[in-house]
Design a protein that fits this description.
The chain has four helices and no strands. The chain is an all-alpha fold. The chain has one domain: DNA polymerase, domain 1, CATH 1.10.150. The radius of gyration is 13 Å and the shape is globular.
Length: 94
């Protein structure tokens, strides 16, 4: 999941100034960083397979953002929204 998200960010970085603002790209990069921290903290792994992604994972990630990152609900909602885009794209490719 992290490796795919990083590839997604790499491709998106080439769109900065064209279709994407740098600030928008950085927000997605923060989500990837938070996701990496969550996976390492919760699963003691460097990455997490897409095929194990379920509602429980998302609920736990949301809880992590609230408790460990002290994010408010509106910030968490945007983080989940930014997390969904590469997930949706990956499901199209498979």
């Amino acid at each position: 999941m992290i490796s795919y998200f990083e590839k997604f960010l790499s491709k998106q970085s080439k769109l900065i100034g064209k279709d994407l603002k740098l600030s928008t790209w950085k927000k997605s990069e923060y989500v990837c960083s938070d996701l990496r921290a969550f996976i390492e903290s919760s699963y003691r792994e460097k990455d997490y397979p897409f095929d194990k992604l379920n509602q429980s994972f998302l609920d736990d990630f949301e809880y992590f953002l609230k408790t460990e990152k002290n994010q408010k609900q509106v910030t968490i909602n945007k983080a989940i929204q930014r997390f969904r885009k590469p997930i949706n794209l990956s499901s199209i490719k498979t």
